[in-house]
């Protein structure tokens, strides 16, 4: 068990070392006036003026148009895959599932109502889903960058150029990092081929079909992008995706590296690194909180089975053990990635509940690529509003005032995702078609449904399993919830960026609320925890808490 | 005629030293709660309630539970229903009490605004003499007056409307407005020409040109202000309302979607329980008190005799970064005063003081009088009466000679005045001013004082006797006040007409951050614009017509009531006491207003945690007995738990009404210190208090028969 915590410490140490240079590199990428030759060629090909800054509404229109085209292309690819090469014999994906999958990967959710190996050919996986992994992560980073510019600029209506942010994220950040990640993972044993399925005779004499595929090139971007969709249904618990405890640690780091480095980028770009540290501290506190909670739930043993095993090992991979699974699970839910190296459905009730609550925090610990930053900024600005009033001034964050137009957007942001989750789950539980899909009755079934909507609304994509999601009802409702949970916040973030960019910068005095000190960090963390708790405790009480407290022997 | 003096606790002793650090408000009279109850009930009108989204939701909830309780009567349903209605009434009560205090003030103001008639002079034009032969006069009701009309007011008459004196001089009793009983002088031209309708002329006669329409006079605006009739929501209040509405929607969703989850879990909840949960969760505490806080904030200003023309200005005061303070009256006591006699070599202190006193006897300026006072105080020299000096002829100060003095019989002449002028006079008299005199003069100037040289001419020979040091006397305690402002992050800039050297010395003594010497109105404007370009909010006081552009430009412009109509029109606040130091208090009140809102919002949200621990186990422990572990307060039964949470929710509103009216405690300090303090008290306190409160209420509620 001690080894498990050393593993967590190792991850923290690597991230602490890596996020500083990477974050600064990202800041240079997004502020450099120079374009690479390949970028210039692409701008010319698409008739884009990379020098022209866009207003927030133009930026948003570009972002939405790009995402819409991406979703339509992916949908077409899935529907037509039977007629395209490298289909490995898979038929066309049915419309409902194709809609759900296209939305899922465009929104960086990668909720999978299908099993990768039995539904998709290599072309659809690599060029359809793989391309969207890059694109959707770049879209998230772009929205984050626009908000940073809204905070740094003044008296302007421009927040940057979407196409430049998008392309640079792909060419200069995601592609190089993925290449490095792929080399490392393949050298550690992750499969990479385009071979047909191999039929083998097992030791016991049975026949088994072994599937390969371009897994090594898929894996790093799945983790870096916050996408998290498995090449195989088993995701990172499949030995071809995640063969050893070493790759397990590497994969966790890959999930966390961009979201943490981007906080550094924020601090560097606004010219006050302390603010970046403060956000990192909030994310770190929340992460530590959920990690300890999950660990405690998973390692607690009070019934014969867990006492014998030393932990709740059901559904976990023996390669990684309970701590490795808990850490991976927390990282996957805290980063909006949603990958899985174990069956979260089989976690203890309370442990699974913590993973669920981690997503309910709104993906801010540290959240997805770009989306983590804007999520953190949104909760920070809410805390600024309360704290600012309490120091007797109109609330200000980074010398920008939070007044009625801003708080309207901030309140709406904090309303959007919970509304999508609660309304979605409420409808699913109210309708027989929703209730009938659960794999387990009672409180656990409720957790499965709430988990599905929480994961979708937060662009996480991790699954609690158990829920038979590939139905017309869930393909549609989860697809809609994914769209709402991804784009409504982005629209709000960009509108806020535009509103902030128009303001001038106020002066900083001792009367200004400092937003980098421990006191304020605790305030933000407290606001995040309390707001989440207040919104979701009824749902959690009837799901994981009911189950967890129910199964717990009295007087434990 | 009764004046509002009796109603307002006067705080004329607002010297900085005496300033209380707690911005205090009036106390809440328990009877006021009773008196305001009818108003509170009237506010149950849904159209009124709709303005406050949080309490509107509570009221809709109360209607729903009432229907439910009538349909299927249980003790529990009725108890919850009654307390939900009480919650709404308590919220209305908070607002009604806050408004009630203003209404009392408005009533007294109205009494001053009695029906008056005006003596209009239709043919009169400025410059003409006012005599009965030359001017025809007509008597009209005051309400018939229009802007530009000229009216005649004689001793004993009430000035029929706001205006400027265009002819004559009079002493006016303004106690109806200011509460100050000492009469003030109002005269045509200059900065003391403004008169207010409803005030009484005590002596002489004046012609007033009316400057405001009936219904929009100063008193009318004042009545509207204290009554809250013209109250508009301020920017931060609007922002906070939006946030509260957002939270209400989130909780509404959480509760509405809970029912399908509950049904799935075989724990269908009754409407009464769901409404109770919703009301417990939405931020009712701050929602109920928000408008009372705003009204009380304005009221605190009125109690200090400051009229803010908009709540926006009060909030802006809390945000101010830079205070522009006139030196005279704000930082220093007033005019320069003699502080020291510096005799020349070979001259005794007595000789110098005697001569200085002689030369100042006929000098009626404050400086001149202060020389006589100093001579008496330091050396016991009795001021000689004019009759004592037989044959003496006094030489008055003129801008050309820049000297004053006296010519005594026998060719003995004494002069005092500006150093250069007196030096010339000595040379003209055949003397030669010593080099040492020049150095003394320079030393006094360098120290921020004003040197006056005293010289005499006896038997045709002139010589310098020494130097009188005149100095601005900095108000006691002002330095500490500025240090506090600095801790709050507010920069102080002293504005003065003095030269650079003098200004620098006083600035250093008073401890201001910066100063503007030899300031012209244009310099002031430029300074304000410069500060505002840097994103700073500027507050200033002013009284003269030439202050008007700057007052209008400043984010918070406080006009002195003694000032001109133009200044009062341009500013967004008027200080009836005409005390420029009050700007500092205004800033504190603005901050306190925001802090009160923030603190109670935090408190309100923090309260919800305990309510969950009460209500969630009560709702679901029947189907999931394990959830009873969340019942950390060990409440008696599910119904008593929910009832206790709702009763606590309602009672906390009443409990906090005094705090909302008074404002939370505010001590000038840095933002970090303020945040720490308020987070501990209202954040942590808000988390802990309801656990205790709900438990205590549960101990009582469990004895209600039929509640189980």
What does this structure look like?
The complex is a heterodimer of chains A (556) and B (708). With 556 residues, chain A is an all-alpha fold. In chain A, strand 1 (198-201) and strand 2 form a beta hairpin. Chain A is built from 19 helices and four strands. Chain A has a domain at 372-551. Chain B is built from 24 helices and 22 strands. In chain B, helix 1 packs across helix 4, helix 9 (271-281) packs antiparallel against helix 22 and helix 23 runs antiparallel to helix 24. Residues 1-26 of chain B have low confidence and may be disordered. At the A-B interface, helix 14, helix 15, helix 17 and helix 19 of A face helix 7, helix 8, helix 11, helix 22 and helix 24 of B.
SSE inventory with pairings:
The complex is a heterodimer of chains A (556) and B (708).
Chain A: H1 2-31, H2 37-46, H3 56-79, H4 95-106, H5 116-119, H6 122-152, H7 162-187, E1 198-201, E2 207-210, H8 215-224, H9 245-269, H10 273-299, H11 304-309, H12 321-334, H13 349-360, H14 371-390, E3 396-397, E4 400-401, H15 404-430, H16 432-435, H17 442-457, H18 472-502, H19 518-551
Chain B: H1 30-42, H2 46-49, H3 53-71, H4 75-112, E1 117-120, E2 138-141, E3 150-154, E4 163-167, E5 169-173, H5 175-178, E6 184-187, E7 194-195, E8 200-201, E9 205-210, H6 218-227, H7 235-256, H8 258-264, H9 271-281, H10 284-303, E10 306-308, H11 311-319, E11 322-326, H12 327-331, E12 337-343, H13 349-360, H14 366-379, E13 393-395, E14 403-408, E15 412-418, H15 419-428, H16 435-446, E16 450-458, E17 461-471, H17 478-487, E18 491-495, H18 500-510, E19 514-516, H19 521-533, E20 538-542, H20 548-553, E21 556-560, H21 565-570, E22 573-575, H22 582-620, H23 638-662, H24 671-701
Parallel strand pairs in B: 11-18, 11-20, 18-19, 20-21, 21-22
Antiparallel strand pairs in B: 1-2, 1-3, 3-9, 4-7, 4-9, 5-6, 5-8, 10-22, 12-17, 13-14, 14-15, 15-16, 16-17
